[in-house]
Design brief:
It comes from Nicrophorus vespilloides (Boreal carrion beetle). The chain is α+β, with helices and mostly antiparallel strands. Helix content is 58%, strand content 8%. It has eight helices and four strands; from the N terminus they run βαβαββαααααα. The chain has a four-stranded mixed beta sheet with strand order 2-1-3-4, with helices on one face. Strand 1 (4-8), helix 1 (13-24) and strand 2 (29-33) form a beta-alpha-beta unit. It binds glutathione.
Length: 232
């Protein structure tokens, strides 16, 4: 069986998506750690991905980036197809949810998290909360009252994509059960996956501790310089 190389960092939601897809497909993957938290990653990725984003897959010389494209490729090539169904209308629905993650959900998260991680921004603005709540509302409607996953009762790659992103949003602004009961059900179903803790929760914990450290350092610096105390 071939061993894939995956340029990876567990703090990154799209990396966690692809890692979970490889687990769902029972594929062996060799993770190549990319130091996304410092500028060193640009050098590491310069001959691999001109867009310098992770994840990047290397399948015996075939290089592919973008978690959505990688997930679809892995299922198309290595099955089982139910993770990315072939039936035209079902696949169209999965594609819609994948584009939702790619075009709305993940960009919303990225816009909020990048200033926190790299530009000394602390806390969420009112506009951040409005944008997050809009994403929660959309996903709550996609789920409807009874389905297990975003496209019905079978899990697809769209679920794993949205799961890694929305669980990261949940870490920043918790999903309230009384406001978004269907979305909360989606999250709980995701948390029951056998590889969820090792991959997604582990990455979330790492990301959360990086953010906490930044807040603590900022608070100490403010106190040291005699400025007003910042609430975490
Ligand atoms: N649409 C892309 C987004 C990938 C992405 O933005 N990855 C971030 C880490 S979470 C990254 O590599 N950022 C570094 C950069 O943009 O230079 C995907 O799904 O793979």
């Amino acid at each position: 069986m071939s061993v894939f190389k995956l340029y990876y960092n567990c703090v990154s939601p799209p990396c966690r998506t692809v890692h979970m897809v490889t687990k769902a497909l029972k594929l062996n993957v060799k993770l190549i750690d990319v130091d996304i938290l410092t500028q060193r990653y640009l050098e590491q990725l310069q001959n691999v991905n001109p867009q310098h984003t992770i994840p990047v897959l290397n399948d015996t010389g075939f290089i592919l980036w973008d978690s959505h494209a990688i997930s679809a490729y892995l299922v198309n090539r290595y099955g089982p197809q139910k993770l990315y169904p072939e039936e035209t209308k079902l696949r169209a629905l999965v594609d819609q949810r994948l584009h939702f993650d790619s075009g709305i959900l993940y960009p919303t998260l990225r816009k909020i998290i990048v200033p926190i991680m790299f530009f000394n921004r602390f806390g969420l603005s009112k506009m951040d909360v409005i944008k997050i709540k809009q994403c929660y509302e959309f996903m709550d409607i996609f789920m409807g009252k009874s389905s297990i996953w975003l496209c019905g009762d079978e899990m697809t790659i769209a679920d794993l994509s949205c799961l890694s992103t929305v669980s990261t949003m949940d870490m920043m602004y918790p999903i309230k059960e009384d406001e978004y009961p269907n979305l909360k059900r989606f999250l709980r179903n995701g948390e029951r996956l056998p590889y969820y803790n090792d991959i997604n929760l582990n990455g979330l914990n790492k990301l959360s501790s990086v953010i906490q450290q930044k807040f603590i350092k900022h608070k100490e610096e403010k106190e040291f310089s005699g400025g007003s105390k910042t609430k975490l």
